[in-house]
Amino acid sequence: MAQLLAGKIAAITGGATGIGRAIALEYLRQGARVAVNHFDDRASAAHFHTLQAEAGDALCANLIAVAGDVADPATASSLVAHTVARWGRLDIFVSNAGICEFASFLSTAPALWQAHLQTNLSGAFYAVQAAATQMAAQSPQGGSIIGVSSVSALVGGAQQCHYTPTKAGVLSLMQSAACALGRSGIRCNALLPGTVRTQLNEADLQDEAKRAYMEGRIPLGRLGAPADLAGPAVFLASELSAYVWCGWARGWPGVIQVWEELFEAEAGQRWTWESRIGCEEEAMASVG
After folding, report:
1. Which family is this protein grouped under (predicted)?
2. Residue 208 and residue 232: Cα distance in Å, rounded?
3. CA distance 134 to 60
4. Domain residues for 203?
5. Residue 168 in domain
6. Separation CA 243–CA 95 (nearest Å)
7. Inside any domain, residue 286
8. Coil, strand or helix: which one is 256?
9. Domain presence at residue 28
10. pTM for this structure?
11. Preceding amide of 253 cis, omega within 30
């Protein structure tokens, strides 16, 4: 089978664990060279070493790590610079790094809010801006930028008042970036996964009653796995989605929605098109 990303250069924030890790592995299998950002600590470095082992010797030559905290603007610049220094350009960028700590709204401390805001939204802004700057300057221009948002950006969650606004911001960032960068050949899209079992919610899902409730409201009858997001991420990075931009793929409960926005400068008119595939769900008051 032909590799969908053969010869492409990719960088992924938060790529040593969870969804980012699954995307990195599939990108490698599809022929891409991949730079993975992870937090600069021993635990994250250990996760990267296990990623190397899982990728195997044949693919490790196409995998590098760039440590740093995405909340620091310098981390995004460093990730892009190391990627380009190693392989000459940047074709694909996945802004995936994020945190989620469940908490009651009334007891959420300012420090917890700031941590989520700086990592999830400011970190995404810095990362997307750094990637886009490189993609606009290189020759040939262009590339694909994917922001990992969340279905929580659309429906909210009682224990996520400090988290859901940041993921809504990521979705909005990708929509606006698509409009700003399209003329440079840069496509921007978002992934909105539902409940995916990762290290972020492992402790929360130890509650058997809550896990059963979550699984029961999903038509497929199971929670998502990080690998479930790898396929959509490959599609959005590949030429198969060459005319998909300003869109978002929602992984809960199996709906893909794509928005295209076309602007006419002289008339100042705007059109929006929406395509839906899958099943529609009843409105949910909370995913927390």
Report:
1. Belongs to the short-chain dehydrogenases/reductases (SDR) family.
2. 29
3. 24
4. 9-277
5. yes
6. 20
7. no
8. strand
9. yes
10. 0.85
11. yes
Out of 95, 122, 144, 149, the active site residue is 149
User: Does residue 263 have a pLDDT over 90?
Assistant: no
Is the pLDDT at 122 greater than 80? The verdict is yes
8 among known catalytic residues: no
Mark whether 163 is an active-site residue: yes
pLDDT, averaged across the chain? 85
- Of 122, 126, 167, 238, the catalytic one is 167
Burial 127-154 (b: 16+ CB within 10 A, else e): bbebbbebbeebeeeebbbbbbbbbbbb
d(CA 46, CA 116): 24
Place of tokens 């400011």: 122
Sheet holding 143-148, edge to edge: 63-67, 33-38, 9-12, 92-95, 143-148, 186-192, 247-250, 255-264, 269-277
Residue 93 lies in a domain: yes
Number of domains in the chain: 1
Integer Cα distance of 164 and 153 in angstroms: 5
Can you tell me the distance from the alpha carbon of 143 to that of 84, in angstroms, rounded to the nearest whole number? 13
Can you give the pLDDT at residue 250? 61
The residue annotated as part of the active site, out of 8, 95, 126, 163, is 163
Measured CA to CA, the distance from residue 53 to residue 262 in angstroms comes to 45
Two structure tokens written together for 147: 């922001």
Residue 228, domain CATH: 3.40.50.720
- Per-residue pLDDT for 251 more than 70? no
Residue 248 has what pLDDT? 63
Angle formed at CA 124 by CA 172 and CA 170, multiple of 5 degrees: 20
149 is a catalytic site residue: yes
| pLDDT at residue 104 tops 80 | yes
